[in-house]
Amino acid sequence: MNKELVNNVRQKFEQIFSRDPVLVFSPGRINLIGEHTDYNDGFAFPAAVDKGIVVAIQKKQSGDSSVYALDQEERFNFGYEHLHPLATGGWRNYILGIVAELKTRGFNPGSFDAVFAGDIPMGAGMSSSAALENAFVFGLNHLFNLGLTKDEMILISQIAEHNYANVKCGIMDQYASMFGIENNALLLDCRLVSSEPFRIDLKDYGLLLINSNVKHNLSESAYNDRRSVCEKVSELLNVKALRDVTLQDLETVKSKLSKKDFQKALYVLEENKRVIAFSDAIMNSNLKELGKLLIESHEGLRKQYAVSCVELDFLVDRIKADPNVLGGRMMGGGFGGCTINLVRKESIQDLKEDVQRKFEKKFKRKCAFYQVNLSQGTHLIH
Length: 382
Hints:
By secondary structure, the protein is of the alpha+beta class. It has helices at residues 3-17, 91-104, 128-143, 150-164, 172-179, 219-236, 247-252, 259-283, 287-304, 310-320, 348-363; strands at residues 22-31, 43-44, 46-59, 65-69, 74-78, 112-118, 184-189, 194-199, 205-215, 325-330, 336-344, 368-371, 379-380. The chain has 11 helices and 13 strands.
């Protein structure tokens, strides 16, 4: 957690609102493997990281609530009488969605003031939206003694994103951000909404994120389209979700699907198997197998699920031939953002310099690099 970020947020709150706040840290997340499986009731392998959102928040006696976004230097005041999504609301809609969902469930948080800022790279596929949602629902739950469990809070965050940001996300992002465990990744069963922690020891290797610094505008509409394809296939097979489907089942409806939709459904089945294989490889300290599974996951996302892009493919193709990299793949919803790579620690600097040079030559823009540590989930800062 970035102490300078915490101090800046606290000081700005005290400057604007002239009182002491409660401080909340809510982390972003990486996902080691298991992409687009969460809304299919499948398996994923996320972990909270030490980059996130810091919120300073406190009750006020009456009047509209006021939120100041420090990074954007924007202030937003709102009342509770007519809550609805804003057409160009951006970050405001996530907060409005949290308050609206609390009220829908019969809770009546009072007015509040807040300041927030973060160090999650925007558009990197590290779920800054889930971190923001969790930070506010956690802070409001604490301030107003709402008595919500963490399980209830992540569902509120998820529905806020569905209804106010119009992204029909699964539960993985909110879960990983809320329940993260330091130095562990979570084998997440998205149907049961429960997880098993796996302590991560990568020995001589480290996790390097490479941010393409692009986010193509297909991302949200394509995400919702992929979800609707999965739901259509599940409906054809009369099951709740693709989690319940075998390859043999899928073959029975192949004639009713386009080739592209069949491949999308097949990808989900295969990715679920990769997640379980990944957990076995961690248990057996088989780092080469981890790298192999990362590459296979990317190829599925690239060729079957069709959510990659030329920048991400370039980054993964670059590391495939590098003997100091065991594997890598695109991470997140797709069409931009980061790749996640398993790189020998002593070679990270050389890799960064080489990738930066080649990426900039091809795309006329820079990429960015992040090394992250696995972090505790959403919590109060004391």
